[in-house]
Write a structure and sequence with these properties.
By secondary structure, the protein is α/β, with parallel strands linked by helices. It folds into 4 domains: 131 residues, Rossmann fold; 103 residues, Hect, E3 ligase catalytic domain fold (Alpha-Beta Complex), CATH 3.90.1750.20; 129 residues, no CATH class; 67 residues. 47% of the residues lie in helices and 13% in strands. The protein contains 16 helices and 14 strands. The strands form 5 sheets. A 4-stranded parallel sheet has the order 2-1-3-4, sandwiched between helices. Strands 9-13-14 form a 3-stranded mixed sheet, covered by helices on one side. Strand 1, helix 1 and strand 2 form a beta-alpha-beta unit. Helix 6 packs antiparallel against helix 7 and helix 11 packs across helix 13. The longest helix is centred in the C-terminal third of the chain and has 48 residues. The chain is elongated and about 105 Å long. The C terminus is likely disordered.
């Protein structure tokens, strides 16, 4: 009686060009069956690794055998490494096949399972490919680890970068130079400003083309790869750590650590108002009802024709309601009426520059002390390593000491970066900010809703009241009042508060003038 067989071929991606092409295997196996008068009842091919039997076509083979009991005698393949590269799983698979009276057969490495000594050869045939797999995996691991220690980013590049090769034809990561790079830079810059909630910023950038889910966006903001670092994973007694990378950083260390301070709660964030911030209602949350003095909200109503009408309105029953367009336009006119006195503005800028310049001497001392402490911690780390090598402390004790010292080094590094950044030249930044203030209306109109609300809260100390087609005289922030010249529109009226700018104190705390948010 003719034996019946299933022909099985397998090839993984890295074996395509090493004599294991699917067509070559198939041709040899069919020729073998023809020469030995074996009936082929099925052909299955897998493009999968041999480390496991969780392969689509192997699962189909077992299903075929279960459904067609006593119709398959053999599973024929070229060599035992086509069957498996995992000794333990191979024996389990052989046992499962024998339950159905099916024998595995490698035509180039045949075995007679009735001969006990064949088990020795089977063990060799199965162990050899597994050892080969393990050796290749170890070589790859060591190679990747060595490359990381050299500062090379291994694997898929970060968002905003592209994979390329250097002059020695070695892989390296370089800035993309396109839209994704700009969006990544914007993500760090905007979040470091403190204006945006993390989810609000993610949604905003998502609309601009930075497609990230919540988890991915969080990881992006935490990734030191963007400041030119490369992560080296832990191995044996060596803990994981970051090294200086060969790739160009996209983000400055100052900006990156500002972001980390916000994420880890070391720096106060702007209150989370993104859920209320809508482009149609920039003044929502800043208006007070002129009738009952309760806050106004905003919403849309639908007319008989189906058109929507937007209103700022009171929810306390007094029926106060104002058209959104009218109120928004009136607020823009209010900003336009601000008369910024260039002389006052210039004087304030010079005073601010002088104060910051005088503070540099104390900052220099702080930087010097920071450098000494940083050097001290680095020396402690080196000494601890020598103690471990000399056998005076255990590796576990060294790990604990190293973790504590590295935490201190990180904090000192962040502190040093902040101190050095405070030593920078403020003249240009101050001039840029003051130039923006000269045209508050233009600055306001150019920004998105969240920044608009930030501008409103920075200028006005109290809620605004809109009635009779205009705003009651608002009370301004002291800095804004200081640099505005006296204007009849701000003298006050019988219902509003008097705001005589000439009486403003010159002793204004410069820290309230936020240079970082233009």
């Amino acid at each position: 009686m003719k034996q019946r067989a299933i022909i099985y071929t397998r090839v993984s991606t890295d074996e395509q060009n090493n004599g294991y092409s699917p067509l070559d295997q198939k041709t040899k196996l069919y020729q073998y069956c023809e020469n030995n008068k074996i009936e082929v009842v099925g052909f299955f091919h897998d493009d999968e690794s041999g480390k496991t039997f969780d392969r689509p076509e192997w699962i189909n083979i077992m299903s075929f055998i279960q459904k067609n009991r006593d119709s398959v005698d053999l599973i024929i393949f070229l060599k035992w490494d086509r069957f498996s590269r995992n000794v333990a799983e191979a024996y389990i698979a052989i046992k499962a096949l024998r339950k159905f009276n099916v024998e595995p057969l490698a035509i180039e490495q045949p075995l007679d399972f009735e001969v006990p000594e064949s088990k020795i050869m089977l063990a060799i045939y199965l162990a050899a490919p597994e050892v080969d797999n393990d050796r290749r995996a170890l070589n790859i691991f060591n190679g990747m680890r060595r490359a990381r220690k050299e500062g090379r980013w291994v694997g898929c590049c970060l968002r905003g970068y592209k994979n390329t090769r250097d002059e020695n034809n070695k892989p390296i990561m370089t800035p993309e130079g396109g839209a994704q790079e700009k969006l990544v830079r914007k993500a760090f810059r905007d979040f470091a400003s403190g204006i945006y909630n993390i989810e609000e910023l993610r949604r905003k950038l998502n609309k601009e083309g930075l497609k990230c889910n919540r988890s991915s966006f969080w990881k992006l903001l935490k990734n030191k790869g963007y400041i030119g670092k490369v992560f080296v994973m832990a191995y044996k007694d060596e803990p994981s750590h970051w090294v200086e990378g060969l790739h160009e950083p996209l983000i400055s260390e100052k900006t990156f650590y500002d972001v980390q301070d916000i994420l880890e709660g070391r720096r106060k964030k702007i209150p989370n108002t993104f859920a209320r911030a809508r482009a149609e209602y920039p003044l929502r949350g800043f208006l007070t009802c002129p009738r009952c003095s309760k806050p106004l909200t905003a919403s849309a109503s639908t007319g008989k024709s189906g058109n929507k009408f937007l209103y700022y309105h009171c929810t306390k029953g007094c029926r106060e309601r104002q058209k959104v367009d009218v109120v928004n336009n009136a607020f823009t006119d209010l900003l336009k009426s601000f008369k910024i006195d260039r002389a006052y503005l210039k004087l304030y800028g010079e005073i601010l520059k002088d104060k910051l310049k005088n503070s540099n001497s104390s900052v220099k001392k702080d930087i010097e002390n920071n450098s000494k402490e940083l050097l001290k911690q680095q020396t402690r780390q080196k000494n601890a390593r020598n103690l471990m090598l000399d056998g005076e402390i255990t590796s576990s004790e060294f790990k604990e000491m190293k973790a504590e010292i590295e935490e201190n080094i990180t904090q000192l590094t962040i502190e040093g970066i902040n101190l050095k950044s405070s030593m920078g030249s403020y003249e240009g930044k101050i001039d840029d900010c003051l130039d923006l203030i000269l045209d508050l209306e233009k600055l306001y109109l150019e920004k998105d809703t969240v920044v608009k609300q930030r501008i409103i809260s920075s200028i006005f100390k109290e809620k605004l009241i809109f009635e009779n087609s205009g705003f009651r005289t608002p009370k301004l922030n002291e800095v804004v009042a200081l640099i505005c010249s006296k204007d009849k529109d701000f003298e006050g009226n019988e219902k509003g508060k008097n705001c005589n700018f000439n009486n403003s104190s010159l002793q204004v705390d410069p820290e309230r003038f936020e240079l970082s948010s233009k």
